[in-house]
Each structure stands twice: as structure tokens, then as C-alpha cells.
Amino acid sequence: MTRPLYSSSRRFNRSAPTPPLETGQICIEIRVAGLNPVDWQIVESEELSSAFGLSLPSGFGNDFAGVVVELGPGVTRWKVGDRVYGGARGAAVATSVVLDEHHRSLHRTPDQLSDLTAGVLDIAGRTASAVADALSSQPGPG
Question: How much of the chain is in helix, strand and coil states, percent to nearest 5?
Fold first, then answer.
């Protein structure tokens, strides 16, 4: 399995092999990758890439939906075939992604939610939640 690598020129560079799974890791086959304006900004700026913990060339995208296809030793939270969605900074535009089973932005996809919808929820969902929190902390009309 491979993932594309991008540079600041937005050109496809190479594919990097997916590393073997370590203890507590899962491999997710990506079915949908959602792109956000910040994804483009990250690959255009070395400074911004660095702020997000990436170095150019890097992978691309954050939001994804997919299915667990392989488990590393000791994984207990997931099973092969589980539908999942979440965020993997610089790794979502790929055939697969390897994450820790307790990755902070990895969630089980509800049965009633399509992969297309789930695949765009991570950044947009966190943004909406932050706005709702900020608005609820504001005093209402007096």
C-alpha cells in the first residue's frame, strides 16, 4: 500500500510504502478523503507545514473515511471491517493510513452515515463545535 507525497509545488512526487504495523496500530483503507483550504496552504508553505508537524514533501489532506483492514499486535478497540472516520494530518489522500488505535481523531462511523459524509467531518466538525462553544459562552441579550 502506498500514499502520494506532495511538495510546495503541488506536484505528485512519489509514493511511499506503508510501514509494517506496530503494536497498537491499525491500517485503514481510505474510501473518502475530504480536502479543506488549509490542506492546500500547508503544502504551499514550509513555515505552515512545520507548524502542523510536517516537512515538505509531505502527504496531503486530513479528513477521511474508510474501513479497518489490518490490526497490529495488541489492538482491542477495533476489528477488521469496522467503518471509521477522522483526521490524519498530511496522510488522508492515500490508499491507506496507519494510525494508533487510540488516535485522538478516530471515530466509529455510525451505520446511518455515508462514507461521503463522514469523510468531511473532522475539520468542519471541530470548527462547528468550537463556534458553538464560543457562542454559548457569550452573554445573551439582556
Answer: 25, 30, 45
Alpha-carbon distance of 43 to 20, in angstroms, equals 26
How confident is the prediction for the chain on average, in pLDDT?
80
pLDDT single digits (tens) 97-135: 889 999 999 999 999 999 999 998 888 888 888 888 888
- Reference 61, options 90, 30, 103; nearest CA is 90
Measured distance CA(77)–CA(92) in Å, rounded: 21
Beta carbons within 10 angstroms of residue 33's beta carbon: 21
Answer yes or no: are the C-beta atoms of 43 and 99 closer than 8 Å: no
Q: From CA 140, how far away is CA 85, in angstroms rounded?
A: 35
Reading the block at residue 3, the C-alpha cell is 500514499
Written in H, E and C, the secondary structure of 20-81 is: CCCCCEEEEEEEEEECCHHHHHHHHCHHHHHHCCCCCCECCCCEEEEEEEEECCCCCCCCCC
* 3-state secondary structure at position 95: coil
